[in-house]
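Box 3.1 A note on notation
Throughout this textbook, protein chains are presented in two layers. The first layer is the amino acid sequence; the second is a token string describing backbone geometry. Keep the layers aligned when reading.
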Amino acid sequence: MSMTPTLVSVDAYPRTAYHPDRDYIDGEVPERNMGETPHGKLQMLLGWYFLNHSDTWRVTPSSEQRVQISPTRYRIPDACLIANDAPDALILRNPPVLCVEILSRGDSMTEILARVFDYAAIGVPAIWVIDPWLRRAFSATPDGTLLHEPDTLTVPNTPIEIPVPDLFRRFFPDPS
């Protein structure tokens, strides 16, 4: 797959469908790394977990939801949680409660940090980065700094939490 970004106007992006969907970064629509089994399994597991807790947590889970960061920047987290009282929108213009990025083998730290910094810039209260390859989970501080979370991923000031071992136990057997 070529990773050359496509150039698109900001007016055309919201009306254009991509398969899979793509971010919009200041006029460019870069391709995404995805499609490998560990990424897909973890994305489905999170979706199941989020859906099963959505009533208690008072959130709506979404997968690959467009989130507007600025007038010329849109991101598509692998998963997110939207507050039930958030305005209904096809493209989120208010920060979700949580954005989750699941690493693919081709992702670079530079790309991931750019995504984390974008989510932090619009005030997303919790940002998780999960690496199914290394069986590691990280949360971001409000300034975008990533912290290794070996025990539990949380969303501050909410009941939302997921024990990290639960993310890997079923689909990612212990390599030892």
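The chain has a mean pLDDT of 91. Residues 33-169 form a domain with the tt1808, chain A fold (CATH 3.90.1570.10).
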